[in-house]
Each structure stands twice: as structure tokens, then as C-alpha cells.
Amino acid sequence: MNMLTQGRKALIARLETIALGQGYQTTAGTNVKTGWFNEVVKASATGYPMIVVQMARGKAPESGPLAMKVFHGFSVIGAVDAGLDDYESAIEDLEQDLIQCLMPRNGVLPDWMPRGITGITIGAPEIFPPAEGLKAATVLVPVQLHTIVQELRHDRKN
Question: Within the chain, which residues score under 70 in pLDDT?
């Protein structure tokens, strides 16, 4: 399995740890999906809270000796069904859970990532109220996994 796939699967597994018994505020880890958020919501019958891991744009790779550091991008989207009048507390609980779950530690490799993933960057969360037929409030957290992709070595004969 390639490093990009391993990183994505580790990210999903980490998000699945969000549960009340683990000290979090929500049970969103029991309902983690992948794909395009709008399509997942249409197809899902499992309800809320929900987390969707959607592939997103990363940043430009950085060159290194015989390798590249790739910043593999994801939108981690949390959703709660809380109505229009009082969604703020519910979505803030989920926002905090996502940040605590994925929080990078300076100078420390994430112990939940496979070897070859050297870090994680979390962008500024964006909160969206229920709107346009979607009764859920959502929070989008941009995430980039710092992944080392090594050069393929081919023996050349001249």
C-alpha cells in the first residue's frame, strides 16, 4: 500500500476514536465516512453526528534528496443535526473534538501515523449553519498530512 493511502487510512482510523468514553464531547467517531460531503449526506442513512473525510487540495510538494515531501490535503467535515435556533454549542463541541483529535505537537511525530508521515497541518476551521435544505450545521477543518514519497530507484546500464 502506498504512503498516501496509508496516511488517509490512518487519518480515518484516528477520527474513529472520537467517543464520549475517550474524553470527547461527541460520538462522531462512530459515524466516519469518506467521499464528497454532499453525496455522502444524500446517501447516508446513519444520521448525525457525522464526520466526512473528503480529499482536498494540499500545498505544493517540497523537493528533497531522492524524495519529495507531499502535503496531501483533506477537508475533514463534521456535521451535527441541531436546527437553526441553537446549533452553535453542538457544532462547537464537534469542532473542539476534531481539533483535539488531530492536534499536532511541535517537534513530535504523530504516533498514530505510519512511518513516512512526518507531520500534520490543520488549517482554520470554518463553521456553516444549517442552510439550503441541509438541516445539519457543519464545520470544515482543512488538514494536510506531510508525507515522504521516495524516488523509485532503477538500475541503469549505459
Answer: 154-158
* Domain assignment present for 27: yes
CATH code (residue 48): 3.30.2000.10
Model pTM score: 0.90
Give the model's pLDDT for residue 133: 74
Q: What is the tally of structural domains in the chain?
A: 1
**Residues 12, 53 contacting (CB under 8 angstroms):** yes
For residue 144, the model assigns a pLDDT of 96
Q: What are phi and psi of 24, to 5 degrees?
A: -85, 170
User: Which domain range does residue 116 map to?
Assistant: 3-150
Q: What amino acid is encoded at 31 in this protein?
A: N
Element (H, E) at 156: none
Half-sphere exposure of residue 74: CA atoms within 13 angstroms, side-chain side:
27
Query: How far from each other are the two terminal CA atoms of the chain, in whole angstroms?
Result: 32
The reply to whether 28 falls in a domain is yes
pLDDT at 5: 94
Tell me how crowded residue 128 is: count the other CB atoms within 10 A of its CB. Answer: 16
| pLDDT at position 91 | 94
Pairing between strand 126-128 and 136-150? antiparallel
Distance set, CA 65 to CA 2, 68, 104, 149 (Å): 19, 8, 25, 11
